[in-house]
Amino acid sequence: MRLCDFQQKEVINACDCRKLGYVADLVFDECSGCIESIIVPKGGKLCGWFGDGGEYVIPFCCIQKIGPDIILVEVHEEKHHRQK
Description:
This protein is mainly β. It has one helix spanning about 5; strands at about 10-15, 20, 25-30, 35-40, 55-60, 65, 70-75, 80-84. Strand 6 (about 65) and strand 7 form a beta hairpin. The mean pLDDT is about 85.
């Protein structure tokens, strides 16, 4: 799967069924090459433009399912939000 495939899928939080937005970036472990987390701009506003500058950093282990249209994650929002 390519980054562009991730970016086309909407991220949904299974804890509260809220739409978090779309994947803007991935964080990789330099040694293993594995994905550590996905980055989703807060509010899903055009890669963070016109938003408040915050983002969700969602550990890859929190992804429950990657479907054809969505990525289902289980996160508690306050733990994975950060300001730029």
